[in-house]
Design brief:
By secondary structure, this protein is of the alpha+beta class. Helix content is 43%, strand content 10%. Strand 8 and strand 9 form a beta hairpin. It binds heme C (6 copies). One heme C (HEC) binds next to helix 10, helix 15 and helix 16.
């Protein structure tokens, strides 16, 4: 088969070399380098680089030909697109055929790598330090199998495009070193679409009740265990369940709750509107603590309540120190026989450290110096137990606190409850009053009833048909302290 003379030039030749070599390497990678999902990020980027080299090579082939033609032809024009000439037609067919084969092979690879870019591993590990907190927390929660993209990419083409814009902004921020520490979703990057939850959850599937058992250890000499066993009343009040009102009642299709918040984190909510969509009845509750002026109201947005208003940390719940320490007492990783260990470990973990390395160095040092000062005999008689317990504390710390990103429990609001953040008590505080004096109730049994509480061996159990009053663990807190105020008055941040 005869090819045009203009085929003989440097640019075209190099174009052929580059595209053939790139193609062979691409093919080799796709065949021999295993599943693309398991490639490293460097592997993926090299793959994208090879595809670019290949395309550039292909473009160089006709480009070189066209240039040579222009030089040699008297009218300075190229005739490479002149398909009536059999030489050019041959060149065109060869080029076209090769291009189609190449395209098929590479599209398969490009498609796979595009999918990989939406995978948990890519989102979570590409910028290791930046995403480490969210990736680590996500891997140990109920949503470990949900992809980052399932929650973080909105619906349809707009959601898809918005996510690519955000991702590019983030890449630029990482390259230029302007990523905020910590990252907040409501500052643009990583915003979560409200409708995301309903792709996998729907209200007909909500459970009516759920039993929760929390095991605590107090900051006394014996690290006294204190159990709280309660039933969460979760009913959504949907048709088959009758009109039973429970926690998921807010999400009943006949119920619409709207609110106005005065801060960007929705922590201060002075105005709440409940519309019964079936009867059309509207009730407005206004805070009598911090009433909202009419002028201020007009400048604020009215938000409809969604899953995220309660489940604010469904995938990245950075546990507070007391929780990750308690859970390690439960498994036995931390010994109960070390006097005041809970207290000493808490004091070491609530300190703010500059880097993960300094935390790893300082936490054992702090706990040991506590024992040197207060119980020197422990360092001699229970050395192994102490070292093992310190290692368990460090394990909890590294899975929940990320000093390099300035991430820990008190940097984000968990609105599911009312201890560290006001959560439910933002509205349920007995101070949101309607015209008819009805309030959004703070009565403890509205949301949960206590089945048992106390120290094992001396547990107090609820008797059938009677509601048991809450008893605050430990000796120092009086009922009026927690009845009148909010739990977060003492428990927020690094408290109590
Ligand atoms: C089940 C849904 C869900 C999944 C799955 C999920 N996230 Fe999130 N993510 C959220 C929610 C909700 C927030 C908080 C949104 C807010 O504060 O408005 C959030 C916040 C974030 C933030 C902002 C910082 C922060 O901690 O608030 C980052 C970064 C993030 N996610 C990364 C990831 C990565 C990486 C993955 C995959 C490993 C992932 N997310 C998977 C729901 C999810
Ligand atoms: C990709 C599907 C998917 C998406 C999207 C999703 N979830 Fe889930 N969710 C699950 C699965 C699967 C479970 C585990 C179910 C189980 O353990 O029975 C779960 C469990 C939960 C649980 C129970 C956790 C526990 O401790 O038992 C809550 C609460 C929850 N999801 C809330 C949310 C919220 C809020 C969103 C939206 C931000 C969301 N989910 C988005 C799939 C999803
Ligand atoms: C008014 C606050 C609130 C709202 C709004 C809310 N939830 Fe919940 N949800 C809770 C509480 C509280 C629990 C119980 C947590 C526990 O037991 O630890 C719960 C439990 C769950 C569970 C686990 C129990 C079960 O039924 O399987 C899932 C799943 C869940 N919620 C999903 C959602 C989804 C999806 C939405 C939005 C459609 C939503 N929730 C809206 C407060 C809320
Ligand atoms: C934005 C405000 C707001 C937030 C936040 C909120 N609620 Fe509510 N909740 C309401 C309103 C309004 C009602 C209806 C009060 C009424 O008319 O009795 C209500 C009613 C309830 C009821 C039914 C009460 C009854 O009358 O039997 C339960 C249970 C409940 N909420 C649980 C929760 C839980 C649990 C949380 C936190 C995870 C929470 N709510 C957060 C506004 C809120
Ligand atoms: C509006 C609903 C609501 C009201 C009212 C309410 N709680 Fe809760 N409470 C919750 C939710 C939601 C949780 C979190 C459950 C979980 O851990 O998933 C919770 C958790 C708790 C816990 C467990 C804390 C832990 O870390 O073990 C205790 C104890 C508790 N509440 C006591 C009270 C007391 C006492 C009152 C009355 C002053 C009260 N609650 C009023 C919704 C409510
Ligand atoms: C006046 C301050 C104060 C208030 C208000 C308060 N607490 Fe506490 N709480 C404490 C202190 C101090 C401790 C530590 C007790 C100890 O470890 O010996 C504690 C410990 C706890 C613990 C055990 C925590 C752990 O380390 O495992 C629980 C559970 C608890 N409180 C629940 C509540 C609830 C629920 C409320 C609101 C209804 C509340 N507290 C309000 C001061 C307070």
């Amino acid at each position: 088969m005869e090819l045009p003379k203009s085929f003989n030039n440097k640019t075209t030749k190099w174009g052929i070399y580059l595209s053939v070599i790139a193609f062979i390497v691409i093919l080799g990678l796709l065949i021999f380098a295993g599943n693309i999902d398991e490639w490293s990020v460097a592997g993926i980027l090299s793959f994208v680089g090879l595809v670019i080299v290949w395309i550039v090579g292909l473009i160089m082939i006709p480009l070189g030909m066209s240039k040579t033609e222009k030089k040699s032809s008297p009218d300075g024009k190229s005739s490479i697109l002149n398909l009536t000439n059999p030489k050019y037609r041959n060149a065109f067919y060869v080029f076209g055929l090769v291009f189609i084969v190449f395209l098929l092979v590479t599209t398969a690879g490009a498609y796979k790598s595009y999918h990989y870019m939406e995978s948990v591993k890519f989102c979570g590990t590409t910028c290791h330090v930046t995403m480490e907190p969210e990736y680590t927390a996500h891997a140990k929660m109920a949503h470990a199998d949900a992809k980052c993209a399932d929650c973080h990419i909105g619906e349809g083409v707009t959601g898809f495009l918005a996510s690519k814009v955000e991702a590019s902004k983030e890449l630029i921020a990482i390259v230029t070193g302007t990523v905020p520490h910590p990252i907040y979703a409501n500052e643009g990057i990583h915003e979560v679409a409200k409708e995301a939850c309903s792709h996998c959850h729907w209200s007909q599937k909500f459970q009516p009740d759920r039993e929760l058992k929390h095991i605590h250890f107090l900051r006394d000499e014996d690290n006294t265990e204190w159990d709280i066993d309660m039933t969460m009343h979760l009913a959504a009040g949907t048709e088959p369940l009758g009109l039973q009102k429970g926690i998921h009642w807010h999400m009943n299709k006949d119920v619409k709750i709207e609110y106005v918040a005065t801060d960007k984190d929705n922590q201060v909510i002075p105005w709440v509107k409940y519309t019964n969509l079936k009867t059309g009845k509207v009730t407005i509750f206004e805070s009598d603590d911090e009433p909202l002026e009419k002028a201020a109201f007009d400048t604020l947005t009215v938000t409809q309540m969604s899953c995220l208003d309660c489940h604010s940390r469904p995938a990245h719940d950075f546990k507070p120190a007391e929780e990750f320490i308690n859970s390690r007492f439960v498994t036995g990783a931390i010994s109960k026989d070390l006097p005041e260990f809970k207290s000493a470990a808490m004091a070491a973990c609530v300190e703010e450290y500059g880097t993960a390395d300094s935390a790893r160095m300082m936490i054992p040092r702090k706990i040991k110096s506590f024992y040197e000062e207060n119980y020197p005999e422990v360092l001699k008689d229970k050395k192994d137990e102490l070292n093992k317990s310190i290692a368990a504390v460090l394990d909890g710390f590294t899975k929940n606190v990320f000093p390099d990103m300035k991430v820990r429990w008190d940097k984000y609001y968990n609105n599911l409850g009312h201890m560290k953040s006001n959560g439910c008590f933002r509205c349920h505080d007995n101070h949101h009053v309607a015209k008819n004096d009805e309030v959004i109730p703070k009565t403890c049994t509205t949301c949960h009833t206590f089945n048992a509480q106390g120290t094992p061996g001396e547990m107090q159990f609820a008797t059938a048909g009677q509601l048991m009053e809450f008893r605050h663990p430990g000796e120092d807190v009086e009922p009026e302290d927690w009845q009148e105020g909010l739990c977060s008055d003492c428990h927020a941040g690094v408290g109590p």
